[in-house]
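Subject: Protein entry, chain in single-letter code together with its fold tokens

Area: Proteins and the way their chains fold up in space.

Attached in line: The record itself begins immediately under this heading.
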Amino acid sequence: MSTFWSLWISILSILTLVFVFVCLYLNMKNYPGVKEGESMGHEFDGIEELNNPLPGWWTKMFWVTAIWSVYYLLAYPGLGNYTGFLNWTSSNQGITSLAQSKAETEQGLAEGLHVQYDREVQAANEKFGPIFEQYASQDIKALADNDEALEIGQRLFLQNCSQCHGSDARGGTGFPNLTDNDWLYGGTPEKIKETLMQGRNAQMPAQLPALGEQGIKQMTQFILSLSETGREFDAGMASAAEPKFAVCAACHGADGKGSVAHNLPFGAPNLTDDIWLYGGSERAIQETLTHGRNGVMPAWKDILGEDKVHLISAYVYSLSQDK
């Protein structure tokens, strides 16, 4: 905040407090020439104003509130850039990276600074950390049958994962559905936890430079021809693109069934089913081939820690079972 606005806010706040104290003081005094209990000469709708002081409890309440406001402005941030003598702040400001956030948190706790968010996180870790640690020692498949563990895992999922995958975990365009059995990197408990811990970075390169506009159209028809659901396609254009599919087969496999089917680490999707991360229409496929896809799944190891990731993994694994 600039010096001007800091002074502006401070002066307004102080003047407001002075005005409040003056009003309280004046309202405790009787009007000159009018005895207590006598009429003030004002009447409205049968109600006459008398020269009586405010009730004692009411006056004391106002004074306590006003005095507390002075203490609050001196103790906490409130007067422009003044930070208060308690050095309290709601959170660390101006954070640009996770590493910086961790460093400032550790520094604040070591120096005894009153950073509200850090204190609340510390208290939560002390209270719930042993619970997470206890569940982290158990197998993910066993946790998938533990209702209490799944409830905790669901809450962690809703807090951290639902922004992309939805509260029902069914995903959306560009975000995988976690309730089916279609997995780009594998749906075993170990692979799910690996994905959460390390994150994923899709690298579908743009094919326009290699294929050209006509080649993109032909390859789109060939991909449509791979569908096991019997989609319509142009046989001539598909036939022309078939030899060029060898480049795509390195990731998707010669049969187009994706990297999971061939135990490859690329995360290339199955092109023969009816599940499409970015849309399976002719136009969407053509757009994917033209521009490529670079979706990012962030790594949660350093954000949540392995114990919490373990519980989320169990919850996510449970969603796709019996389906």
Remarks:
- The domain at 138-201+299-319 is CATH 1.10.760.10 (Cytochrome Bc1 Complex; Chain D, domain 2).
- The chain has 15 helices and six strands.
- The chain has three domains: 3-29+51-88, 138-201+299-319, 208-294.
